[in-house]
Structure formats: structure tokens, C-alpha cells
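Input (structure):
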């Protein structure tokens, strides 16, 4: 019987609008791109989505760095409570940051900025979680990004 042919993508008007069903819209536009039907692609919304993807990855990177710093501060300032679950939390947070940086190496240069931007929030969270006085924790981050991400860095 011959090779089955893929049926051509229906006209773009057959798909939901961007505002109605994002997944169907994305699938339709991906099919149009693959078929070279560039004039039918919703270029403005596609550009928006690509920009938003970058913003989302930056937010995720900063969020994971904040969580990692909370754990490192607790590790450093509550040494009597250090245990396997804390170590695992730090290792998991490091891994999450590494995954983002592996997928998007260009974000590496933004990681240090995230560290400084997120430290005040991490510090406040560590104060609340530990119950220690705020003067125990430095005003500025005591770590650099290389330390935070290093598998062998365990602050004392």
C-alpha cells in the first residue's frame, strides 16, 4: 500500500484563537512552521510566548537559588540540626539550578544577579524558619554563586 501521507494542516482559521486555547494554538503554529507556511503563523503572539518563556526560566532560576540559599543559611546557622534530609534538600536545590543552567547556559551570567536579588528574601525566610534573631544573619549574601552551586560547599 504506499506510504501514508500526512494530511495537510487545515487553514489557520480552523484553530482556536490564541486567547481561547493556548495549547491548540501552539500546536497549530508549530505545524505551520514545520510546513513552511510562515505567512499563516501568528508571529506577534509567537514572539510574546518566546519572550515569556525566557522570563519564566529566569524566575525559576531565581526561585531555586532563593530556596538553595535558605537551606544553606539554615545549614550554617543551625549546625546542631544538620542531618540527611537537610543535605538532600541542598543537593536537590543545587540540582534544580544546574538543570536550568544546562538547558539554558545563557542564564549562567544571570545566576549571580539572582543570588544578590533573592538573598534578602532568603534571609527573611531563614530567620522565620529558624527562629534565630535577624542579627545572626549577614545583611548581604555571605556566598558567591560558585560556592552556592559547588557540590562540596557546606558552609560552617
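Output (sequence):
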Amino acid at each position: 500500500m504506499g506510504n501514508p501521507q500526512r494530511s495537510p494542516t487545515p487553514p489557520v482559521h480552523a484553530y482556536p484563537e490564541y486567547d481561547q486555547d493556548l495549547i491548540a494554538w501552539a500546536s497549530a503554529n508549530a505545524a505551520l512552521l514545520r510546513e513552511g507556511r510562515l505567512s499563516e503563523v501568528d508571529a506577534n503572539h509567537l514572539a510574546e510566548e518566546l519572550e515569556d518563556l525566557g522570563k519564566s526560566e529566569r524566575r525559576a532560576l531565581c526561585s531555586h537559588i532563593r530556596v538553595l540559599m535558605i537551606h544553606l543559611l539554615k545549614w550554617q546557622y543551625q549546625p546542631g540540626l544538620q542531618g540527611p534530609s537537610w543535605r538532600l534538600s541542598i543537593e536537590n536545590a543545587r540540582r534544580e539550578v544546574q538543570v536550568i543552567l544546562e538547558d539554558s547556559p545563557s542564564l549562567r551570567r544571570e545566576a549571580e544577579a539572582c543570588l544578590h536579588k533573592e538573598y534578602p528574601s532568603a534571609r527573611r525566610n531563614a530567620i522565620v524558619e529558624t527562629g534565630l534573631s535577624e542579627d545572626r544573619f549577614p545583611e548581604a549574601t555571605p556566598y558567591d554563586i560558585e560556592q552556592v552551586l559547588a557540590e562540596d560547599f557546606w558552609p560552617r
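Notes: The chain has two domains: 11-41, 53-149. The mean pLDDT is 88.
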